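Lecture 7 notes: from sequence to structure.
We start with the chain below.
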Amino acid sequence: MNKSMLGIIDSTMVHAGLEELTLHRSAAAIPFGGRYRLIDFVLSNMVNSGIQSVAIFPKLQYRSLMDHLGSGRNWDLNRKRDGLFFFPSPSLNKSVTDPGSLEHFAEHIDFFNRSTQEYVVIANANTVYNMDLVPLLDWHIESGCDITEVRKDGASLGIYLVKKTTLLELLDSREESGYLSMRDAANDLRSQYKLCYYNYDGYAVTIDSIDKYYAVSMNLLRPEIWKQLFLKERPILTKVKDEPPARYSKTAAVHNSMVANGGEIEGTVENSIISRGVKIGKGAVVKNCIIMQKSQIGENCVVENLIMDKEVKIEAGVKVTASPEAPEVIRKGTIKGARATT
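Predicted structure tokens for the same chain:
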């Protein structure tokens, strides 16, 4: 029996709750954990499960995503046969109405017809988890399912498994059925297909709001959570950058934090996630923050409960704090200080 799987990453959804972080990027490309992007989790899960052909279906603001993925080399997907495919929708400008992901798939029907895999796993790009998909496939086959939806505690994780022939039928009949997405097909109790629900009991959270993004990021600082996500036998792969290790001066003090490479730390950092190339000046205090790539925090600053997007600059002596229940997002490229705020 051919038990090979084709991986489909559905990045067509627009999440209003993440708007502050998706003005210049898709949700799939949101930085996470200091050196990763959200898409790294689903993509790594697929590759670690033996999937050698992965297609990504983005909607808007996908330049950053393309830059991150490149040829797929970091995931061993730069292959002569199969590999990584990128399929923007050719009809994005035809209508302001969202036609749904099945319509997007159908626009690239030739890709599915040419693929040789018997099964297709379809997943969103904004769920944080580390899952072996092979047991899911075995369970799907043994249960005689047509469409399997993966759930955790009764809630959908946006992961679906079908035979390729079933997916092609869904695409061909989408106008008649009215299905816009795989979720519609998996939740139609009058469906002609056998619907199954697979319970995943590992750590998994779908990030669809700023509050959830902040909470899940902060959870990475808990060893029991970290150990469930970052496994030696199933590593989370990401884009490799040749940067030196972070440099800590004699005045630096770092507690319960993650600091990525390429940074310069001279101040105090507590309970925070510091991305690549971040500079924190002498006397500065950073608490409960997510600081993204190449941001700068000047001397004697105080920042607390913030999500600072890339290339933000906090000038010397400035204090910016928010409530832990409502973390503030500082947009990419913002300068905060006595002289300028943009």
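Points to note: The domain at 5-229 is CATH 3.90.550.10 (Spore Coat Polysaccharide Biosynthesis Protein SpsA; Chain A). DSSP finds ten helices and 27 strands in the chain.
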